[in-house]
Amino acid sequence: MAQPTKLPPLYVQIRADLMKAIDTGLLNPGDRAPSERELTQKYGVSRMTARHALSTLEAEGYLTRVPGSGTFVSQPKFEQKLNAVTSFTEEAQLHGMVPDTRILATAIVEADYRMAERMQVQAGTPIIQFQRLRMANGIPMALETSNLPLGRFPGLEGVNLANDSLYRILRERYNFKPAHATQSIEVMVAGTFEAGLLSIRSGAPLLLLERFTHGPENKLVEYVRSFYRGDRYRFFTELH
Ligand code: GLP
Predict the structure, then answer these.
(1) Is 116 helix (H, G, I), strand (E, B) or coil?
(2) Mean pLDDT over the full length of the chain
(3) If you average pLDDT over residues 48-67, what whole number do you get?
């Protein structure tokens, strides 16, 4: 005798229906997802089952819950190739977006032991630091702190980097072009400071990219810590 087919739990069916609506364009990025109440009525399920379906899709990144407003279809991620020393400005333009930068802080500090080791300079060497909020089409995307040896770039502290590209300035004003860089990526969570600036909730995933950029003759010229929004970025590499 044939075994009766076991139906998947109801939340799995609701999830599959919502996924289909997203895949077929019935629901587009930014559209409001059905509410728990609408799902309970449509499927005749409990509120807990409806919530489970929505939170599964939220955990998978397809939906984004905005406290006080509702749940929306997530925006597509920005795909960034990791095969060249590109700048934020170039990447945003490549995706047809308008880059925008807010300078949060500029300072000249003396390299302490840790910084000196990272930047391959003597302790006490003057380092210029920029903390910048990077945006694309007005959406906060990344928060980055760049460190450069002031001796190599005299006068950089007086340059207005708001809405400009650091790499463009290094190229045009200092005749410097990055030759190669090493970069690591690790997962972090947003604290209240990062969350506030990046318009995400505290505890949301971030990707910390640490880049060490070298000029010709392998001289280190830039050490950057960038926090990229985990819900907005996807990094792509080709392996041979
Ligand atoms: C990216 C990199 C940074 C680099 C920056 C330069 O954001 N993660 O390491 O400093 O690009 O960007 P821009 O020239 O737009 O200032």
Answers:
(1) helix
(2) 93
(3) 91
Q: So what's the pLDDT on residue 49?
A: 94
User: What's the gap in Å between 91 CA and the centre of ligand 1?
Assistant: 9
Q: Which amino acid is at 75?
A: Q
Quick check: CB of 170 below 6 Å from ligand 1? no
CATH code linked to domain 78-236: 3.40.1410.10
The finding on whether 226 has its CB within 6 A of some atom of ligand 1 is yes
Which residue puts its alpha carbon closest to atom 8 of ligand 1? Answer: 226
CA distance 149 to 223: 9
For residue 223 and ligand 1, the question of a CB distance below 6 A is answered with no
Ordered DSSP codes for 18-73: HHHHHHTTSS-TTPBPPPHHHHHHHHT--HHHHHHHHHHHHHTTSEEEETTTEEEE
Give the ligand 1 atom nearest the CA of 181: 9
pLDDT at 135: 96
Residue 155 has pLDDT above 90, yes or no: yes
Tokens at residue 15, please? Answer: 């999830």
**Domain layout of the chain by residue ranges:** 10-73, 78-236
* pLDDT of amino acid 21: 95
Decide if domain 10-73 falls under CATH 3.40.718.10. no
Has residue 133 got a pLDDT over 90? Answer: yes
Asked if pLDDT for residue 3 goes beyond 70, the answer is no
Model confidence, pTM: 0.85
Strand, helix or coil for residue 4: coil
CA of 239 to the centre of ligand 1 (A): 24
Instruction: Specify the residue with its C-alpha closest to ligand 1, atom 12.
Output: 87
